[in-house]
Specification:
The chain is an all-beta fold. The protein has a single domain, classed as Quinoprotein alcohol dehydrogenase-like superfamily (Methanol Dehydrogenase, Chain A, 8 Propeller). Helices cover 3% and strands 43% of the residues. The strands form 8 sheets. A 4-stranded antiparallel β-sheet has the order 1-32-31-30, with no helix packed on it. It has a 4-stranded antiparallel β-sheet with strand order 2-3-4-5, with no helix packed on it. Strand 28 and strand 29 form a beta hairpin. The longest helix has 8 residues. The N and C termini lie far apart (52 Å). The relative contact order is 0.15.
């Protein structure tokens, strides 16, 4: 009870609810080239492979728009279908839409029991994950569902947070499952060694549990160490590396801070290196995960401190949003990947989700401004800008075949999905 009371008293912290969006799992297989089967794209790094965005001269056209309910979940796109995860009334709804015109192909519904925390929105936070004939969704109350891609029928459901006595946290469940082989690895934050829970993708049955840690709003990623697939998971106060088959913890590092704080940005992986960042005085770390214990290659509290936005990397440079949205300190930075040296900063962009497309970066600002800029380590160069329809754009976007899928929040119970043509 003291924990929940502390949450409700954290007025300033309440503005960070968007952190729950920067989460999804990697490992989604059996999708077409150019699909966006999970948050941050096929490799969960914000890279839109084979996409190129021209600097628009006229305002980009909105090809279609679809009303939706509550939540901050971004969409995923696979096989010409768009999967939208949201809440209407007492149901969490997964809608399968045609990418061509937005028409609904089917809907799957589940009881919505999340009552809300420091933010009024009670919709789902994490992003769907498509693999093969399955789409997986994780609700705000910690219920995990496997749904058939073709017709929306439910294959299985698990009430993971209830099963493992996990707290609601600041904003409910937000981390998205990671698909590794035949298991889904979920940041649950449960009691009795259930910080992470692995379930069988076909049956939903628990394979293993691991780690006595509360869940963060970041999601697990995969990394290869000496030819072996490993999982790295950012939790409340630690980042751990595990064997995805057994759940054995192979190494851990401290990352996080006590108090009303969160870890939310998705880690970036480069071979055996991993980059972590968080706000609240935590900063960033570049780690060599092949060392025992993992070794810092560089770290700083003064370079990138991401509230919830995941940076993107182009060549040897990171393009990142640092600072806190609730304090109005979000700014764009260009930082050298190898050593953290700052190349430039652009203070007036604000908080924005980033997608890398070739040698350009697309920024979807929370305020509703869409900015295309050059991936130029010498200076910031805006190539095109446009104001999107009025709303708050905290949901992560997806970019597929020249179409940007943006979700705007209109109120605590109402939103809209836009398909914007950027070809």
């Amino acid at each position: 009870m003291m924990y929940r009371s502390m949450i409700l008293r954290s007025r300033l912290f309440g503005m960070v609810f968007a952190v729950v969006l920067a989460i999804a799992a990697i490992g989604a297989g059996d999708v077409e080239a150019g699909d966006w089967p999970q948050i941050l794209g096929p490799n969960r790094d914000g890279q839109a492979a084979d996409e190129s965005i021209a600097a628009w001269q006229d305002e980009p056209a909105v090809r279609w728009r679809v009303k939706c309910g509550a939540g901050y979940s971004g969409v995923v796109v696979a096989h010409g279908r768009v999967f939208l995860w949201h809440r209407e009334g007492d149901s969490e709804c997964l809608d399968c839409l045609s990418a061509a015109d937005g028409s609904r192909q089917w809907r799957a519904e589940f009881p919505a029991i999340y009552r809300g925390g420091v933010n009024a929105d009670r919709g789902p936070r994490s992003v769907p994950l498509v693999s093969g004939d399955q789409v997986f969704v994780y609700g705000a109350a910690g219920d995990l569902h496997a749904v058939n891609v073709s017709d929306g029928s439910t294959q299985w459901s698990r009430e993971l947070r209830s099963d493992y006595d996990a707290e609601d946290g600041y904003f409910g469940a937000g981390g998205s499952p990671l698909l590794s082989g035949q298991v889904l690895i979920v940041p649950v934050g449960g009691e009795n060694h259930a910080g992470l829970v692995a379930v069988d993708r076909q049956t939903g049955k628990t394979r293993w549990t691991a780690v006595d840690q509360e869940a963060a709003y970041a999601s697990p990623v995969t990394i290869e160490i000496e030819g072996q697939a490993r999982v790295v998971a950012v939790l409340r106060l630690k980042t751990v590396m595990l064997d995805p088959v057994t759940g054995e913890v192979l190494s851990e590092v401290d990352f996080g801070k006590r108090g009303p704080t969160v870890n939310a940005a998705t880690p970036l992986v480069d071979h055996e290196k991993i980059f972590l960042t968080a706000a609240y005085g935590v900063g960033c770390r570049m780690l060599d995960m092949s060392a025992t214990p993992p070794q810092d290659l560089w770290r700083s509290r003064d370079v990138i401190s991401s509230h919830y936005v995941t940076p993107v990397r182009i060549d040897d440079y990171l393009y990142a949003i640092t600072g806190r949205e609730d304090y109005g300190t979000g700014e764009l930075m260009c930082v050298r990947w190898s050593d953290g040296k700052v190349a430039w900063n652009q203070p007036d962009l604000g908080t924005a989700h980033l997608i890398a497309a070739g040698e350009r970066v697309l920024a979807q600002c929370v305020s509703g401004r869409l900015v295309l800029f050059a991936a130029d380590p010498k200076k910031f160069r805006s190539l095109a800008e446009v104001e999107l329809p009025a709303g708050i754009y905290r949901s992560l976007p997806a970019l597929v075949d020249g179409t940007l899928y943006c979700r705007r929040t209109i109120s605590a119970t109402e939103g809209e999905l836009l398909a914007i043509e950027l070809k």
